[in-house]
Batch of 4 targets.
Target 1
Amino acid sequence: MNATRRFFSALRRLAVPAKPAPALPQPRIGLALGGGFARGIAHVGVLQVLEEHNIPIHCIAGVSAGSIVAAAYASGATPAEIGRAGCAMRFGDVARWSISRMGFVVSERMKRFLERLLKQNRFENMRIPLGVLSTDLCTGDPVTFSGSGDVFVPIRASCSYPGLFQPVQAGGTLLVDGAMSMEIPAHLARQLGATHVISVHLPAQDSACPTNMFQVVNRCFQIMQSHTEQSWRLESDLVITPAVNGMAWDAFGSGPALIQAGEAAALAALPIIEKWLGRQAPHLPALNVRNAAPGSLTA
């Protein structure tokens, strides 16, 4: 009798299905796009690779030229559409010379350019969360825009390179280029909900002894940003650095080469991103590992 009971008890245990292992939460990948004026076209190559390999992007943040690409992508524009617009763009499409005590150029024309490029023009209508970073000229503090509101003024402010572009007024505050307070908005991507932040860093043109006023100002900003680089690297899980340091700030005619540089850097970083997603990474070129902050890796 006892043997019979033990037999049926064993059968009941076999019939109970084993509990499946709890599924690990998928990472929420955020992109943080840095500035670089014409070199910002390289961001398109990064986006193309991520799309081609079905990498899900939870949110995107941008500063300066990166804010244009970020807003366009968040609005629903494809990398190909952004690339065509970037390659066709010239300085006069976004700026007009208007010398004043505050700068040499005004950026009202940028609104028309953005109206043609963006599919949506308000933060709340974007297909993924968007963040734009600018700088309060008086306090030096970063000023972030996200969630709701018009995107045109924040983008114009984020692109207002001091000494060249006149500051943009918003709500009684004078705003300038976001890169003055934070070169890459990695922290903003985290605030938008990213668990894994990919920062795309566009290195400046190789330094040389300045020969005019604009080069002096630009070189001063390079020096300043080199001393604050550690802060955004610490907020980044991965840093992608396209090889664009041979390109001038106004190299609009080099659009295809800039896109290729972005593609190459993103492909090199792809195995790490695929690993986050628990996927088998395809066979790709080996990573070119450079010095990076703890917790990040530069491709």
Target 2
Amino acid sequence: MIAASISDYRALARRRLPPFLFDYIDGGSYAEVTLRRNLADLEAIALRQRVLTGVDQVDPSTELFGRKVALPVALAPIGLAGMNARRGEVQAVRAADAANIPFCLSTVSACPLDEVAAAASRPLWFQLYMIRDRGFMRDLLEKAKAVGCSALVFTVDMPVPGSRYRDYRSGLAGAPGIAGSLRRGWQAMRRPGWAWDVGVKGRPHQLGNVAPVLGANSGLEDFFAWMRDNFDPSVSWRDLDFIRQTWGGPLIIKGILDAEDAAAAADAGADGIVVSNHGGRQLDGVPSTARALPAIAEAVGDRLTVLADGGVRSGLDVVRMLALGAKGVLLGRAWAYALAGGGERGVAHMLRLIEAEMRVAMTLTGAGRIADLGRDSLVAPHP
């Protein structure tokens, strides 16, 4: 298959990954209502086509947290993304660097922070959850500073993991011990290309950033158990003081869906927020990002940088998010599919597709610059 879109990369990922990994990146929580809303509501946003606007030069570059970037996008943090290709986060960060966009590494990545930072030519962003062991959190923050991370993304919508039925059906969750290993091993054997390139040559398979505290118990079978046992549901706005004591750089709060919470993030001194429902992977039935974004951008857009994710499958979707009020967009499944479907080259190609599609959409809406995109770019101001 020749990939011409992110949907094509999704099809390639389904072919190449063992089902337990594909379902992990592709699925959502419960009945996946919010997962579907993210896609459908964003797709339904009608852009206002304008003609004879004299836009012969389009500049999709912008600035995010003090860095001039080629596109208003970043690669979002994705747990276990490194299992989609051999040392996958390393491949992805190289593609992001070449495109001059930010890459954000997840706390629960397969490759550890120092390995990914060593492969990067530009500073990373690092994503952190609130973990019960504050000493371990402090160690992670110190390591992020030591390798030169330029921004911290603090995820607040996962005090406990969501219930994701696909992960139980596939054997990634709820299948400990030998039975689970055999189940996943059988799935891997049916994908011999992945089994050799990633399963054999891509070792070690572990949660790279948490391996120091897990010791020998740091394999895939321990992924959900570690999150369930170590994420802290008692987290509150007061805990931001703890993070600020160690981290002095830009702080981005990820997982905001309500305007009151957005205002609280601004009051707490956050430099940015990500309007997000965790890709429909946490509380099912909540609003899509496209529906939540306009009110939040209106409430706090002049106080901090508003980013958004959820349902973005094209450069057209990026333009829609920007028109709804975001200053930047995090790409999640888009790069995970591309990594699984084509490795570093796949991620680089996906970013070129995003740019080309953005340029067409900007030209046909009369927007020569990112700053020209706003509510006037929409047929109606709200979804």
Target 3
Amino acid sequence: MNIKGRHYLKLLDFTPDEIGGLIDLAADLKKQKKMGISHRMHEGKNIVLIFEKTSTRTRCAFEVAARDLGMGVTYLDPSGSQIGKKESIADTARVLGRMYDGIEYRGYGQAIVEELAAHAGVPVWNGLTDEFHPTQILADFLTIKEHFGYLKGINFVYMGDARFNMGNSLMIGCAMMGLNFTACAPAKYFPDPALIEKAQELAKQSGATLTFESDPDKAVQNANVIYTDIWVSMGEPVEIWEERIRELSPYQVNDQLMDKAADNAVFMHCLPSYHDHKTTIGKEMGEKFGRDSMEVTDSVFEGPRSIVFEEAENRMHTIKAVMAATL
């Protein structure tokens, strides 16, 4: 695998072999870190992180990974950059590209990170946009491979709103790598038909199947992985909670649903999660709508079938692999 100098903006820009190569590299770098083997292969380089949407896991993963690779890191929070406000995206890219060896962007439209990449002159990495979340998918797949030993043929079910970055990226990733993908939600929450068509083309090549189901009991039959995300995404207005709770409550991941999946089924979540009232929003919305949890119950989230924290750790190892390979 040689992807030096390439951007990492969406999975569709890569081949299945390249995605597999990044997962294998991440596993190797993880092993080295656990064994205390130094891998400062990019000593003296510097990267900048542009966060128009804040994050715990993405920021920490990029910062720790960069330092493990020997690099310096500059973090720009939503108030720390003039991108798109006083300075155009193209101008920002050309300035930062002359100062840094790589640029990460986490924010809004995919067009923004694509424009950064077009003008930066250095690798640009997508830490999340409204449409795609490609670093998360690498972490998810590394976690699945660690747990089951393989990816191809895994029955993967995504419960809930599949119209945005997570549903889109998981569907494409599964289609590329041969996992059987099911989106389970009311039909209005399925991914864009044009993207489904592209995923179907990829699935034909990998042998994967794509299913779109509105009955949770049918969807989880023989499922090896049940995955969900919060019902109201970052940046969406709080007013839509009532609609989402009404329409997505039947798709909550609970013990009864997990028991209908395969005996070896695991639960995954990209985090953060509203599985209890220990967050401000979780408490506010839980009390307002009379719920003790939202997209997943606390018993599943904290239970023996949950591998969410292994998944969260793997964000760092897979992000490190992306930076190591592209710089």
Target 4
Amino acid sequence: MNSTDRAIIELHAIDREASADGWLQALHPVGKLLVTLVYLVVLLSFGKYDLTGVLLMGTYLVVLMMMGGVSLCLMGRRLWPMLLLVGMIGVANPFFDRQPLFGVGGMTVTGGMVSMLTLMLKGLFSMSAAYLLIVTTTMDDICHALRCLRVPAIMVTVLMLVYRYLVVLLKETSRLRAAYSMRTPGQRGIHFKVWGSMVGQLLLRSIDRAEVVYASMQLRGFQGEFKPRHDTPPRWSDYLYALAWIVLFFVIRCL
């Protein structure tokens, strides 16, 4: 199984997790999206030396993983390339910011060490918050929440189409790789000389598929905007969930 097939399987698995029956999954998507946006804004507003405040913001992630039944190991396995890249932010800080802040066991902790940890945690927590939103909320619900927050319809429609047909694009890529492997037995990977032609073929196939999809959407009455499947009003628990978290975020920020 190649990386493209694994990506397709992971996308389907995330869709199943987001559609599962659970208390967190059943919350109104507007509240969950609003809490995530406020969390990111408050998290990124901390100063580069405010390591304690950033650590306290991790409480939200721990509670959400427990409420939603999200596996920490599975999240790490899915996001490790991005988490590794984000974790490298600020690695050079200890070399440039050598101002001593305090001492621990005879070792001097500099401002660069603290700012490095703060930047790393900000990146890791931001990625984790976005992941928790995706695995507990379907893309249809996220797009519906964006429209409720007055995001332009064209942007939401593009986001919906990109997500829905990402699997189709990956399957086309998998077919091209399989055809290339059958014509070049024993060769590992794809030779760089054919990268251009394969990308061109993938582009032409995508254009043809896009025309067919758009014609099918027009036949089904598409008028430029997707309608939500379940447009239920928020409940008192949805308001309480959003209000409790937003108040807690600002309390932590003001400490």
